[in-house]
Amino acid sequence: MRAIRIKIVFLLIMSFLAAGCMSPKVKLFTDATDPLKEFTLAGEAEDKILLIPVNGIISDFSHKGLLRTKPSMVQEIVSQLRMAENDPAVKAVLFKIDSPGGTVTASDILYHEIREFKEKTDKVVTVSLMNVAASGGYYISLPADHIMAHPTSIAGSVGVIFIRPKINGLMEKIGVDVVTHTSGRHKDMGSPFREATSAEEEMFQGLADRLGERFLRLVKKHRYLDASELADVKTARIYLADEALEVGLVDEIGYLKDAVSKTREMAGLSEDSRLVVYRRTEYPNDNLYNTQTRYQAGRQALVDLGLPESAKFDRAGFYYLWPAGIDFE
Question: How far is Cα 159 from Cα 222, in angstroms, rounded to an integer?
Fold first, then answer.
């Protein structure tokens, strides 16, 4: 029976696709082409706190599935910041972060956009760290006026990792080779088809060190750590919430509702001020723990046919990322 149902669904989808070639475009699901709309989670007053969820790997890669498109995290968050910037009733923004980090550039873009938003609007910016706020997930929280960690949060991993695929050993086993001609001796450095030279390894390490130092300088700038605290953070270790508080990476420990109350207090808002989100779809019984901006009915593997977030790491690059925190679903 299950196989028959799957076939019926598949035939229906193919019918919609075929019809789309001959008639106006048919949309089965909300996607990146739908506008963000404001929805109220609590409160009735005019003044607002905007809640922005940051979930998963930080990147500027958009995703195209079979029937829908998904904006990149950078695009999604910047869009919400622009809407908040143009709404005088939004007095504060609370970021709810649950991320192991991501690419160096995407993390730095969000850091820059959040800092610029805060400087341009003079609105209060706070952060609530959830399960994991490591590496780039912590990096983007640095401009905030206040960082609150959930009692069980993992934070830290202040550093950079260079990831590159390596398949030359496999190619030797199956008897395949790649021949290259370059205009300079380092043109193919990092190639997965050969071993790196000692000079190239040194250059890669130098790049990683410089990007890591950039991260550390920003931590020092925003968190005012002393020499011993900075030395501990420099090891790129992770911390539980109470340890992160002790070393100075966070300001307070509390639950998400505590973060909302703290944001209200810092912005000078009443208890009845509105907590709002920007989403593409209205959800029944919506609340501040909902992380979606558009409707997703289950996993929908038959429809989406997309790769997991971890598949983004098939490309070489520098990442502000805690690899153990990646969701491989």
Answer: 16
Higher pLDDT, 144 or 191: 144
pTM of the model: 0.81
Beta bridge partner(s), residue 163: 317
CA distance 90 to 88: 5
Does residue 155 contact residue 251 with C-beta atoms inside 8 Å? no
Question: 252-255: which pairs have CB atoms within 8 A and are 24 or more residues apart?
Answer: 252/146, 252/147, 252/148, 252/149, 253/148, 253/149, 253/150, 253/151, 254/148, 254/149, 254/150, 254/151, 255/150, 255/151
Distance CA(57)–CA(75), nearest Å, equals 13
Question: d(Cα 144, Cα 189) in Å, to the nearest integer?
Answer: 38
List pLDDT tens digits, range 59-104: 987 766 555 567 889 999 999 999 999 999 999 999 999 999 999 9
Which sequence spans correspond to the domains of the chain? Answer: 28-156+239-325
pLDDT tens-place string over residues 171-229: 667 867 677 777 888 777 777 777 888 898 899 899 999 999 999 999 999 999 999 99
Q: Report which of 98, 145, 147 is spatially closest to residue 121, judged by C-alpha positions.
A: 145
Positions marked catalytic: 135, 187
Residue 275's DSSP bridge partners are: 42, 49
Q: What topology is assigned to 28-156+239-325 in CATH?
A: 2-enoyl-CoA Hydratase; Chain A, domain 1 (3.90.226)
CB 141 within 8 A of CB 127: yes
